[in-house]
């Protein structure tokens, strides 16, 4: 593929399409097998190619995207259950375990004492805790 800004685009178009699909609809794009079929690859080949091109595993990226979507919903004051479903988690308990493992604190601990604000304007995620007065 050709990137007009920098010449040849080193990312495989199938990986780029997979990234776009995940970012467009995380809740529905969370199964590597389905993503592989859409990319025209075997699941193992997509996993290998994705890791090689993106720098993290497909599973880790999918989980990160789920957490981002759920955290955005929490930031908009949705309930834990609604946020979990928005992120593609089966239930709020699964989201809470994942959130605690990734950030060291459960989402209910944050939302009980304040609110969550996400800054996704850069390539990094910033979760800010703001206490309610």
Description of the molecule:
Helix content is 58%, strand content 12%. It starts with a strand and ends with a strand. The longest helix is centred in the middle third of the chain and has 18 residues, at 58-75. The protein has helices at residues 13-24, 32-39, 43-54, 58-75, 80-87, 92-103, 107-113; strands at 2-3, 7-8, 114-119, 126-131. The chain is α+β, with helices and mostly antiparallel strands. It has 7 helices and 4 strands; from the N terminus they run ββαααααααββ. The strands form 2 sheets. A two-stranded antiparallel ribbon has the order 1-2. A two-stranded antiparallel ribbon has the order 3-4. The model has no long low-confidence stretch (mean pLDDT 81).
The strand order across the widest sheet is: 1-2
What's the order of the H and E elements? EEHHHHHHHEE
User: Fraction of residues in helices?
Assistant: 55-70%
Number of discrete helical segments: 7
Question: What's the mean pLDDT score?
Answer: 81
**What is the straight-line distance between the termini?**
52 Å
User: What is Rg?
Assistant: 17 Å
Give the percentage of residues in beta strands.
5-15%
Low-confidence stretches: none
Q: Count the beta strands.
A: 4
Largest sheet: 2 strands, antiparallel
Structural classification: alpha+beta
What does the overall shape look like? elongated
């Amino acid at each position: 593929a050709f990137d007009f800004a920098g010449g040849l685009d080193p990312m495989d178009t199938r990986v780029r399409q997979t990234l776009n699909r995940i970012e467009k609809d995380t809740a529905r794009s969370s199964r590597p097998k389905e993503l592989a079929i859409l990319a025209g690859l075997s699941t193992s080949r997509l996993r290998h190619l994705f890791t090689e091109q993106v720098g993290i595993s497909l599973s880790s990226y999918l989980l990160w995207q789920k957490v981002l979507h759920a955290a955005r919903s929490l930031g908009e004051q949705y309930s834990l259950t609604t946020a979990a479903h928005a992120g593609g988690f089966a239930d709020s308990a699964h989201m809470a375990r994942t959130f605690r493992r990734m950030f060291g604190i459960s989402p209910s601990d944050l939302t009980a004492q304040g609110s969550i604000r996400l800054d996704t304007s850069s390539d990094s995620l910033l979760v800010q805790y703001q206490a309610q007065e």
